[in-house]
Each structure stands twice: as C-alpha cells, then as structure tokens.
Amino acid sequence: MTTNDPVLRALAHPTRLRMMSLMWAAPQSAAELGREVGVSQALASHHLRTLGAAGLVEQTGTRKKRGGVERLYRAVRGTPLSDRQDGDAAVMLAETLAHNLRERSRHRTPDEPGVTSDVELWLRPEVWDEFRERMAGLVLELHDASEAPRTEGTVRVGGTVLLYRMDDGDDQDGRSADSGKAGAADGQGVSGES
User: Does domain 6-145 have CATH number 3.90.1150.10?
Assistant: First the structure.
C-alpha cells in the first residue's frame, strides 16, 4: 500500500505521529523528542526532516546547549489528520493510529478513570455532522491545553480518535460484506458471546 501524499507519508509512521503530538504544546529539540519516543537523536532528526518537508513542523528557534546550539521545532497548527478520506491513505493512517494505541495502552494507569468505546452506529446525517464538529473541537481543545512533556504538575494522557462515516456495507447480493466472517474462526459473535 503506497501513497504519493507527502503529508500522509510523513504521518503514517508511529514515531512521527507521536512526535507531532509532543511538539504541539511547546517547541522540542531532536534530543528531547528522541528521549521521549525512545529513539536516537539522529533518528529523531531524520523524522523531523521528514515532517518538515511535508510542512508539518517548523523550526521556532535555537538554544545553547553544552557549547553547541540545538534547534527547536514545533508542530504547525492545524489538524492534518482530521479528514484523510482516500482509501489507501485512510487505511495507512488507521494502521499507524492502531499501532500507537496498542503501545500507549500498555502505559495506561490501571486505577484511573478513562473512556473506552467502540461504535458502529446508524445516525441521521445532521446528528453525525454536529457530533463530528464537536469532537474535532474537543480534540483541538485537548491539544491546546497540553504542556511540554514532563512539565511539573502534569499527567501523561493517551488517546486515539478515529471517527468516520462508513459505507452501507452491502455487497451486490445485498448481504453485508463481512457477514459470516466475524467470529467465524473462534465460534463467537461480534460481541464475544458464544
């Protein structure tokens, strides 16, 4: 699966997606980002160049560090993830989001409240449009409230949101394209009942 979209190619890597989120609140250096995401400074710099070439990050300044100068980068404002609709591109992005969700869920604090949901619903178009706009606003509000990693008094929060309108799922015979597939391998239905 490939795409010529430079923005998608830049975002379709779990480390770059994490770096984008970390740079939202405050400028970060390649060294800082490398420490946060668990890669070398050189690899973090490579990822920053890829994000920069796609127009997703910008250099915001420099600072002196141990006799040298390090560049600081920040995510360009906007939400490039919010409307990736084309087939292969949407699948690539969903796979990257799923990877990050799996990784972050390993760090979930067990006794802290959170929100977990999985939906496949039928809504009126106007209800869907209004909800989608509200959710986009909430995600932007969450990003705007974020602070630099490990700022005193903050807590680390993970989240993945992927909401989208689906096709009707009918193939040419009028049956669901997935009918008979869900749970077939283990004899269970979609919700896990036997």
Answer: no
pLDDT digits over 26-58, tens only?
Answer: 999 999 999 999 999 999 999 999 999 999 999
pTM: 0.73
Place of tokens 């760090």: 107
Integer Cα distance of 43 and 52 in angstroms = 14
Mean pLDDT calculated for residue range 94-99: 89
pLDDT of residue 122: 95
Contact indicator for 25, 68 with CB cutoff of 8 Å = no
